[in-house]
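The records we work with from here on pair a chain with its fold. A complete example follows; check for yourself that the lines match position by position.
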Amino acid sequence: MITDDPETPGNRQWEINVAGTLERNSGENLWEIPALDLNYGVGDHIQLKLEGAWLVRQRTGSKTQDGAGDALAGVKWRFLDEERNGVSMSIYPQVEWNLSSSSVHRSLVERGTHFILPAEIARKVGPFELDAEAGYVIGINTGDEWLLGVLAAWPINKRFEIMAELHSDLPSDFSSSQLTANIGTRLKLTEHVTIMASVGHDLLSEPEDHRGLISYAGFQFTF
């Protein structure tokens, strides 16, 4: 899912996500094959993150293009725990930057660096876990943005979970509207392996940016 939560892997624990994604808009498919998300716990309340992907773009009437996507690194600090404080809460500063000038020149990625400054909060309400994320994105050589997301997770049993979310990335001056809806699931195969999948689309967007399909499928490995 797009919306993050305050949880961290645990001290000296790895959480590695290996996935494929697809975004489809009018006349274009953009794949991340693979998308890699590496997370490591430092103590029980800190998470280090490094993320990247290989992009493949298919356009009607054009040759398929591929290249390195942007890299993303961050540090999450969970400073409130639900068991002691009633809610879990974290801050999660991240930086995203261009890895390949070739990918920029071919418009596989937008030129620029982003400093992402979100906070996350979570609380269990009955059988549901509710998460919310809000933050500001500072763009270097590109525009600033607000990010907002809410997510509800329903554990059917100890192994299977269903999720739904609404997420928005808005320009800092609110000059346009954008809203994405997603539904997803997690299925725990073993103690250390989980299957994750989601599908969604834009409810609100500018016509040229409208994504009729957003999908994700992958595995999470913990150890």
Q: What stands out?
A: DSSP finds two helices and 14 strands in the chain. The CA atoms of residues 7 and 205 lie 30 Å apart. The chain has one domain: 14-222.
